[in-house]
Amino acid sequence: MLLNVLAEGTDTRLPLGLDGLDLIWQIAAFIVLVLLLRKYAYQPILNILDQRSARIRESIANAEQIKKDLADAQTNAQKLLAEARQQSQVILNNAQKQANDNIAASRDEAQKQGNAMVERAQQQIQAETATARQQLRQEVASLALLVARRAVGERVGSDINVQNSLVDDALAQAESSVTSINNRRGA
Question: Taking the complete model, does pTM exceed 0.85, yes or no?
Fold first, then answer.
């Protein structure tokens, strides 16, 4: 019907007051406009929006990765701190044990040195006692010999065997006297 109207060249108005030819040109222009906008305007805008969406997604993914890395770093830092605390405690315990061992070793060494000093002192006392006894014997022997010479006269002085037996008897008597005196003091 529209083509018949166009071919006749008469009034191209449609019942609603629209011009049919103008309507066809407007529809054609609208379709061409939509196609041009789609090709040159919508497509670049959609590409820009897609790129922006991709960057946003990438930024979100990066932010999530950073959060995860930060959480991992904090976990690792906590582990390292715990290990460092544990190692420092082990080092402290070892140092304390070493100090206690050193103190015990020093105490043992001091005890050994003290015992050695006491033993040396006892040996020295015994040696000095033996020396004093020997000197005492010699003095007692000299005194006994002197007394014996005076009592018996010069006859004993010439025989050495007689002198030695007299000295031994005098020493035995002197030792028994000293022992009995010491026993009385101890009791």
Answer: no
